[in-house]
């Protein structure tokens, strides 16, 4: 019986997807729930699982094609026998070889280790043969780190084997198409610049109290909750306190209306190989420090492995981005529309500061708030940053709500 393979139902916010690559070719056997193809949307990578076991009879859509929800991709012949399966009984009937001379072959499913979308993309971009990449994860699963290591090794081998070149170095070019995610990021950033009156205001914060608190409790915090106590939970808590005091910073513009959000869904920017993603912490004001740190760690892992869901990237009333992890001392982040503001964190740097008439060295960070001036006045933007600064310089405020 023939079974049709169609594009899974895409969310309303996603119009179409790109079929990146087929993982099976016509005539090959497939197992139920085995990934047949990778789809890339402007937000996440999706897999197309086989609904049944059988043989892939026909492919209807080529690699690189744009597809929509429900579109026919391929046809599987349900339960069709393959060369491997028909030869299985004969193999089973013959006596097993002695382990010392001929080890038992692993099952067919183990011959090709499972490879995630992020790792597959690295393999394709570097033209690596999938079977040559050794997986180090459980069950020989190939991770992105495995693929990157194989790419570096292959490049080194190629460079060593290449004959000396007389051409002028540094004059080569490489043209690659934008990923859908990168193209979508570009589109949204330009749209934000054109549709919003963006302005950035700055302040600085002394993080000595936060660092002291983290140093005092980091070991007991990790032992109790199983997650490290980072900076982001402090900034999210401080930002929520500022949003409560100045609700317009948490609002958005919709046509001629101002929509005040009475909840706090905070987007946290995560950098990945495919581009910047902003997963959303729903009802972040109801989360503990430990819950915030745990969810951020999960978001980062899944975003970089390509397994994050569309729902986790949708919505948000306010965003935070941390350029300091890359060494940025100051920047002007761009608002994640239709939100109206974004908070930028930066590098912590020891600087000479005057405290109570004395010059002392303090761990300082510049803060940046980019906001839509159509909705938020400069007074409110500055006061919001001052509220964040006050909470971070006296973290007890976050616990007492003052």
Topology:
Elements: E1 2-6, E2 17-22, E3 29-30, E4 35-40, E5 45-49, E6 54-59, E7 66-67, E8 72-78, H1 83-93, H2 108-111, H3 117-125, H4 144-161, H5 180-195, E9 198-206, H6 208-225, H7 232-245, E10 252-254, E11 257-259, E12 266-268, E13 270-272, E14 275-277, E15 280-281, H8 289-305, E16 318-322, E17 341-345, E18 349-355, E19 358-372, H9 378-393, H10 396-400
Parallel strand pairs: 12-16, 16-17
Antiparallel strand pairs: 1-8, 2-4, 2-7, 3-6, 4-5, 6-8, 9-19, 10-11, 12-15, 13-14, 17-19, 18-19
Explained architecture:
The longest helix has 18 residues, at 144-161. With 402 residues, the chain is α+β, with helices and mostly antiparallel strands. α3 runs parallel beside α4 (144-161), α7 (232-245) crosses α8 and α7 packs across α9 (378-393). It contains ten helices and 19 strands.
Q: Tell me what the CATH architecture of the largest domain is.
A: 2-Layer Sandwich
Largest sheet: 7 strands, mixed
Multimeric state: single chain
CATH superfamily of the largest domain: Chloramphenicol acetyltransferase-like domain
How many extended strands?
Answer: 19
Residue stretches low in confidence (pLDDT < 50, at least 5 long) are: 81-96, 98-111
- Radius of gyration over all CA atoms, rounded: 26 Å
Instruction: Write down the secondary-structure element order.
Output: EEEEEEEEHHHHHEHHEEEEEEHEEEEHH
The overall pLDDT, averaged over residues, is: 83
Structural class: alpha+beta
